[in-house]
């Protein structure tokens, strides 16, 4: 394939004291493991499907039946495993799923170990905690991430991760609301909406579910929706920095989004899972925008800052000012959901979260984030040097590469077949992702360098 597109990067950049850009000027290599085996995929046997003719009398949830194929990332894992069976000796490198690879800084794991050991003592034992999270952690999240934004400790709901909170938020809003999503977007928004029953059927030609407003985000509109053309939805799911495009919205764009929500009477669910990756002056929280507390809530995560993808810890902020049409506070209903559907994040993990927010923990997280950002630079430089149009990467751990006119799944398959590198096809994030692939910057340095060497070989 000959590709002669010119370099065109979308670069974006603002606020809370901790998230300020100063922490990202260094380049740190210490957090990388020697990576002979790490990040190289091994084939995992999938369980044999059991053949049974007995059926229960329970009918399948009709909303589940609306879902298309598998959830994107297990589908990619399936393709990767099939590839490994075809080429058992290949050294497959995964820059696909967006899972973290670098070790959790010791200041954080030692706090978890201490808390864990204390559970074996009479004095240190504790059982169920507060469903909303432990007070010191809620206070530390409020002051660290929202210090000057008027967000208080009791506005914070600590959770087992942003993905779980997204589903709990869907339970909160129920099946009668309509949603709008960026297109492309993180697949959990659309899939959880389908599951809860907010959507119509999947429309194959449009590659969209009925009743969802897909807000196209592409290079032409600077990856920000053309709001005058967007139909009203009750809930606007908005992610910045965005997964998968890697683009972060500007203050001016978010001001327009907040105004739009206010005019339409909508609620913004703002996903800031990658806020720490912002190195310029772009907002790191929707609450930096005046008036946002009346129209927005925010969900966030330790996953991509501290390597907590397996440990599991996140939070959701719901300001007291955010009210339903009958004047009832959204936070009160969410509190009810949390008390019913969740019994609080692990106490051991919350000790880890508190350690993340100590001065040492904060600087350790910044090093981890800095390391992945350096990977993103390497990947961007590679595709730029090959003449591709490359987006994202500057304020996010994702590089969004354009293959105009080609099918994302075809590009994904060609890259896997010829380089043994797993990426993610853009169309898996919505029809607006067609013609793009997402390359994740989560990986050991050696693997990222090797993957880039193979990309150069393929596209030279
Ligand atoms: C935009 C976005 N939100 C949420 C999540 C999930 O975060 P968590 O690990 O806290 O569930 C991810 C994970 O990749 C993500 O990309």
From TrEMBL:
Keyword vocabulary terms for this entry: Aminotransferase, Pyridoxal phosphate, Transferase
Signal peptide boundaries: none
Cofactor: pyridoxal 5'-phosphate
Entry-linked InterPro entries: Aminotransferase_I/II_large, DapL/ALD1, PyrdxlP-dep_Trfase, PyrdxlP-dep_Trfase_major, PyrdxlP-dep_Trfase_small
UniProt entry tagged with the keyword Transferase: yes
Family annotation (Gene3D superfamilies): Aspartate Aminotransferase, domain 1, Type I PLP-dependent aspartate aminotransferase-like (Major domain)
Region (Disordered): 1-21
Spans traversing the lipid bilayer: none
Segments forming domain Aminotransferase class I/classII large: 91-455
Stretches with biased composition (Low complexity): 7-21
Pfam families: Aminotran_1_2
Protein name: Aminotransferase class I/classII large domain-containing protein
Species, as recorded: Hevea brasiliensis
